[in-house]
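The passage that follows is intended for readers who have already worked through the single-chain material. We present the inputs for a multi-component assembly, then the predicted structure in tokenized form, and finally a short commentary. You are encouraged to pause after the input and sketch how you expect the pieces to fit together before reading on.
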Amino acid sequence: MAHQSDPLKIKEQLIQKYPTRVARKRAQQIVVNNVGENQAVPEIMANVRTTPGIITQRGCTYAGCKGVVLGPTRDIVNITHGPIGCGFYSWLTRRNQTRPTSDEDHNFMPYCFSTDMQEDQIIFGGEKKLRQAIQEAYDTLKPKAIAVFSTCPVGLIGDDVHAVCRDMKEKLGINVFGFSCEGYKGVSQSAGHHIANNQLFKHVIGRNDTVNPHPFKICMLGEYNIGGDAFVIDDILEKCGIKMIATFSGNSTIEKFENAHTADLNCVMCHRSINYVADMIEKKYGVPWIKVNFIGADSTTKSLRKIAAYFDNAELTERVEKVITEEMKAVSVVRKDVKSRCKGKLAMLFVGGSRAHHYQDLFNEIGMKTVAAGYEFAHRDDYEGRKVLPTIQVDADSRNIEELTVTADPENYHPRKTGEELKKLNDEGLEVKGYDGMMPQMDNQTLVIDDISQHETEMLLEIYKPAVFCAGIKEKFTVQKSGVPCLQLHSYDYGGPFAGFKGAINFYKTIDRIVNTHIWSYVKAPWRVNAQPLLEAELVETN
Ligand code: CFM
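Having made your guess, compare it with the prediction:
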């Protein structure tokens, strides 16, 4: 296929082979970017069901709840109530790291807990076995908290996990709570994030009101410590003199969650997975939130300055600037060198619900161009910006997820800033409670594709031949068989961290190695090596 540069034509090509109805739907999920005045961008269809038969890269609701949001917390025993496969396949595959503070500190992450549901439970109910599993976990490990995650069959047979959790909480005297995060509950893992957020808010956040006297207290929301990213961010903040009360949920503990509402500012890193917690904490406790991004050295600089601007303290600002200057020295040297070899090369990013946006900053820093990008399961606001929230139509699938009604806490609602102060910050350019989304930052004429299919991926690779394709384990090897290197941006393959200044240097070097090696031009898929097909079949007509 000849290289074409008209993205509209390429869009047509991508959907050309689909049946009419499928093509019509995909046409709304594939958009040629066009940034207008006030950062207006075209509308994209997102967070809708994948058409059956299309190979999607999405995960399930259980994965979003158990794997993504709660998985990185080391001292909660997370029990999967369901068949063993659900537990097994969500067992540390995400490379979320943790660092217990001492040998006494619990760390259950290397374990996989499951009720191992069998036919017997499917037919006669699984509540008894769940009760036993909770008891056994308690007797063996004496954890501070136990969480229970429902898988598809649990919802189908109607086990009441919440009633079991309530009983066991009373019996054992520790926090036991459940999640109705059956895999089919939403159109993707995104529903699982929302369910996780709700239950954390209901059962955990706000249980410990002790206020740390530190003047600059923040929480980091939506940073899951993949490949050690949260460690890097923690180090930077510590150098700057900023106190981290809790991270949701990289390297976290249940005690940190319980105390999270005492921070003075929430910094939202992954907007998609955790903006609900940020909103609810603001409503109940008066803690404002800002969007940050620690992926990219320039983005890290910007985010640190945002935090400093919020606290508006001369000493803090000075310290932050000092850290930035020091760290940027090493960054600039490597960046310049790597840029000389990577400039102008093409990148594509199809990842989750925030990284396809954040990592474009890193590519920009070394002069690479993102020609196509998209999320697997994000919503329109992650593409077009939070300003579109009021115009998003709530469909039956979204209505399926509980929307908590949150009001100001009679005792613990303390607005950290007055309305006037917040307005002043906004006027000065520090957008509180805002997120512009991916599209306004992308060039015009680039392709934005929601929930990309395997077929479209293969077409894009053939048309653009990008220098690197960023995705996950499901795509990795088919992409590489087409002669294009694939960097996993979920797990970072075996590498990382990529966050902060040190992570940026690591990323530049990783990309340099990937896009400047020649081996990819020698790769030929087996079916392209042999002129003759390896297998042949004949259509036999039967009556
Ligand atoms: Fe947020 Fe994530 Fe992501 Fe996500 Fe994920 Fe992930 Fe991701 Mo994989 S919480 S939306 S559900 S940044 S596991 S750490 S890499 S798809 S882009």
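Commentary: The pocket of FE-MO-S cluster is lined by residues 64, 68, 94, 189, 222, 224, 226, 270, 272-273, 351-355, 490 (CB under 6 Å). The radius of gyration is 24 Å. How closely did your sketch match?
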